[in-house]
Write a structure and sequence with these properties.
The complex is a heterodimer of chains A (about 260) and B (about 425).
Chain A (H helix, E strand, L loop, with lengths): L5 E6 L5 H8 L4 H7 L1 E4 L12 E7 L5 H13 E7 L1 H5 L11 H8 L23 E3 L6 H13 L10 H8 L4 H5 L15 H4 L16 H10 L4 H8 L7 H12 L1
Parallel strand pairs in A: 1-2, 1-3, 3-4, 4-5
Chain B lengths: L7 H9 L4 E7 L2 E8 L7 H4 L8 H6 L6 H16 L5 H32 L4 H7 L1 H22 L8 E2 L2 E2 L5 H5 L2 H19 L13 E4 L10 E4 L4 E2 L4 H4 E4 L8 E4 L9 H8 L5 H9 L12 H22 L15 E9 L2 E9 L5 E7 L1 H16 L8 H13 L6 H4 L4 E5 L1
Parallel strand pairs in B: 1-13
Antiparallel strand pairs in B: 1-2, 3-4, 5-6, 6-7, 8-9, 10-11, 11-12
The chains are: A alpha/beta (about 260), B alpha+beta (about 425).
């Protein structure tokens, strides 16, 4: 019998939510565990086997010198490396420091700043090592995670669309809240994957799946101005969980300069 | 902190690679030093919350923890509502209790079955445990799923749900929607009772400590979002007085701040504290479950916290069923945010214990100052104290067993850095 593929889960700066998605796949978890060997997953197991690994799932962003070194080792051990979630794919909410003085930030939180070792920037994994697939979301969608692992093992392309949240809204029959109610919504520039949750809860999308493929952020910025938002407000809406994704970053900086 | 001529402490830091760990220094059979090390890189939430609009705070602070996002959302909205003088609709209050029930069930089931039970049954993880105890693990997963179903129905998804808002919810569920949960919850109530019986049969080390327990306490109900902050040693304050009584210290070896009760030292928050301080507010079915499990008041054996978690799961299922039965949708899902300035603090009961937030807000609704004290940083010092007293009784055991028992002693607290505490390597330094 062929050896089962070895899977490892690594954590960098993050909230644990994306790796928890694997444990939240309550119906699939025991099945997945039979199809693959989860050999390194500290959140779930004391058993931690050494690499090499067939698939490495990486959660979190790089925020310390130490982690910048560790991701190089992780890459060398993983045949396929997949980043999961907004921290790993875009630097996460902690990338808000990238526009500020990180030393001042540390002083706000800690009484003895010299104990804290941190980088000036929070950066995505792909800024440090080559990444084979980036799974978006804050948090990721567990069904997309299962689809991705299944596709990787079968050697096929995963069915993970790069179109916008608008398509998902249309599909579930949600009336457009921008058009009907004048609510500011990042759906037109945000990648699908969540199932267009926020508009179905009567609120605008806040962009937690990051920019869609070729988003028209300029046009959306104009729409937000028509809705009465200030440039500072618009800049902040692009600056949240995927603030450092280049399309959102560019859009937020353009508003800041305007 | 002298390492004598040894530099093991530094070596250890290099090897643990960003995860947490324990460091224990012994001289003969005397414990000289215990450190719970947390290497979780700082993410600096309190700093970048400044300048954001208060309506964003529940979504942003949820991202502190993927395992208990609702706790962060609840402490945030209550603190902001107190700052701005917002009164919420009683139906919203009920829904928030239900929302919290979902998180408690999900989080407690995760900890009982997947993180803690393997210690008692002798497995490295729940997946290995499932080979011999498939039914138990499946029951745990189904319980966890039931908690997650409440969260998903009310908040769109189990991790970082999107419905919580300052003043209420963005959208509230329908009565019919909530009723669809009833069958699962009835099953979960029975399953929680059988879980309590199961875990009560585990073997517990003979270890008790004279703790100062700290939890919210409400005159009529087991606490989630409201009540005074009380302890078994006479503390009885409003959340607004929290910082007069508690202080945080920054120690060199941890990126999480240590909390102390001023002039008294370490204290314990979480299920044990809630249970001991609020037993009479549990519904009869949960009280009876506790008695059947042999839990006497006060329970001072931290290893029995797994039983208390199961009893709290019984409560949460019962409470969820009560909330669903009583629910009438509010006239409006939320109250608008008034344009005024203010300072407000609140504490709520996260699955792991007290979670304190304070915000200073200007008249445009912009956050000027944020302070967040999570349960794990409050328990950190207490965990070290437990280890200090627990280790001497283990000295004759093999090194591997000492390591495992110490890990288990940390897991008693279900620390929010669960990945870090599942990565503990015990370093014993003998002089």
């Amino acid at each position: 019998m062929k050896d089962k593929p070895r899977i490892a889960v690594f954590k960098f700066a993050s909230c644990d939510g994306c790796q928890l998605s694997l444990l939240d796949a309550e119906d699939e978890l025991l099945g997945v565990a039979e199809a693959v060997d989860i050999v390194y997953f500290p959140e779930a197991s004391r058993t931690m086997l050494k690499g090499p690994y067939d698939i490495g799932l990486v959660e979190g962003s790089i925020t310390t010198h130490h982690d910048a070194g560790r991701i190089q080792q992780v890459r060398r051990q993983c045949r396929t490396l997949i980043t999961i979630g907004a921290c790993a794919t875009a630097g996460g909410i902690q990338a808000l420091r990238n526009w500020k003085d990180v030393d001042e930030f540390v002083r706000v939180v800690y009484a003895t700043p010299q104990y804290i070792s941190t980088l000036k920037m929070s950066t995505p994994i792909a800024e440090h090592v080559p990444v084979d697939f980036e799974l978006r979301g804050c948090p990721i969608n567990k069904h997309q995670l299962i689809e991705l692992i299944t596709a990787m093992l079968a050697g096929r392309k995963p069915n993970i669309p790069a179109y916008s949240v608008c398509i998902e809204c249309k599909r579930r029959g949600t009336v457009c809240i921008v058009v009907a109610r004048g609510v500011a919504c990042l759906g037109p520039v945000t990648q699908a994957g969540c199932g267009a949750l926020c508009p179905s809860f009567d609120r605008g999308c806040y962009g937690c799946y990051g920019p869609m493929e070729s988003p028209n952020t300029g046009s959306l910025t104009n729409q937000f101005r028509i809705l009465g938002q200030s440039d500072q407000q618009i800049s902040q809406s692009f600056r949240s969980y995927n603030a450092w994704a280049w399309q959102f970053r560019k859009a937020s900086e353009e508003c800041e300069r305007a | 902190m002298s390492g004598g001529g040894k530099t093991i402490r530094v070596d250890y830091l290099a090897r643990v690679e960003g995860e947490g760990g324990i460091y224990i220094k012994l001289k003969g059979d005397q414990v000289q030093d215990v450190q719970l090390k947390i290497f979780e890189p700082p993410r600096l939430f309190e700093a970048f919350l400044r300048g954001r609009h208060c309506s964003e705070v529940p979504d942003i602070t949820a991202r502190i923890c993927g395992i208990c996002p609702i706790a962060y959302q609840m402490s945030a909205v209550h603190a902001i509502e107190r700052a701005l003088g917002i009164e919420i609709d009683p139906a919203v209050r009920l829904l928030r209790r239900l929302f919290y029930c979902g998180e408690w069930i999900e989080s407690h089931a995760l900890h009982i079955f997947m993180l803690h039970a393997p210690d008692f049954l002798g497995y490295p993880d729940a997946i290995q445990m499932a080979r011999d105890h498939r039914g138990t693990v499946e029951q745990g997963l189904r319980l966890k799923k039931t908690g997650n179903r409440i969260v998903t129905l009310m908040g769109g998804r189990e991790i970082h749900p999107i419905s919580a808002a300052v003043g209420g919810f963005h959208k509230v569920p329908s009565k019919t929607g909530l009723r669809s949960l009833v069958e699962d919850l009835k099953w979960a109530l029975d399953a929680s009772l059988s879980t309590a019986r199961l875990v009560a049969g585990f073997e517990f080390p003979d270890f008790e400590q004279d703790y100062e327990f700290v939890a919210l306490s409400h005159p009529d109900e087991y606490p989630f979002n409201e009540g005074r902050l009380v302890s078994n040693r006479g503390l009885d304050i409003d959340a607004a007085q929290y910082e007069e009584h508690f202080t945080e210290q920054h120690v060199k070896y941890s990126n999480a701040l240590h909390s102390y009760l001023r002039g008294r030292g370490s204290y314990l928050v979480g299920p044990l504290a809630r249970f001991n301080l609020n037993f009479s507010r549990l519904p009869e079915i949960a009280q009876q479950a506790a008695r059947d499990c042999g839990l006497a008041l006060p329970c001072r054996n931290p290893f029995r916290s797994i039983v208390v978690r199961a009893v709290e799961m019984v409560f949460a299922c019962h409470e969820a069923l009560r909330a669903i039965a009583e629910y009438e949708p509010p006239a409006a899902p939320r109250v608008e945010i008034p344009g005024r300035a203010g300072v407000g603090s609140a504490a709520t009961e996260a699955p792991r214990g007290l979670l304190y937030h304070r915000y200073e807000i200007d008249e445009r609704g912009i956050i000027l100052l944020a302070k967040i004290v999570p349960p794990t940083s409050q328990n950190q010092k207490r965990i070290e104290d437990d280890l200090r007293h627990f280790v001497p009784g283990l000295m004759t055991r093999p090194a591997e067993e000492i390591t495992l028992r110490c890990e288990q002693a940390v897991r008693n607290y279900d620390p929010c850095i669960s990945c870090a505490t599942h990565f503990l390597r015990l370093k014993i330094d003998r002089e």
